[in-house]
Write a structure and sequence with these properties.
The chain is mostly helical. It contains five helices and no strands. It has one domain. The protein is elongated.
Length: about 110
């Protein structure tokens, strides 16, 4: 069981690492927005909901592991882990399900 959680954590770290260059500017703007507004699961579309699910999965990893050296040190181990990718996909799917329910599945 601990191997599953280890693989999940590693995969979430990998996702974060791969997305960092693209999301750095968006994250700064996002942080400014969250300073003014409370966190909300309400999104305009399923695509926005999925993007929020990925963001929440990434943030959970960086919230738990503040030390960037440790965060990045295990990349070689999890970079090619199929189990880790599947586990991270599951976490994102659970977040997406939660967001979809909060948005009444985007139906009016």
């Amino acid at each position: 069981m601990s191997n599953r959680y280890s693989a999940l954590s590693a995969l979430l770290i990998l996702i974060l690492a791969l997305m960092l260059p693209t999301l750095a500017a968006a994250n700064e703007a996002d942080n400014k927005t969250h300073e003014k507004q409370p966190l909300s699961l309400i999104t305009a579309s399923p695509d926005d909901g999925f993007a929020l699910a990925v963001t929440l999965a990434r943030r959970s990893v960086t919230t738990m592991q503040k030390n960037k050296d440790i965060l990045h040190s295990e990349r070689p181990e999890y970079a090619e882990s199929a189990d880790g990718l599947i586990a991270a996909s599951h976490v994102i799917a659970v977040w997406f399900d939660t967001i979809a329910r909060a948005n009444d599945y985007w139906r009016e």
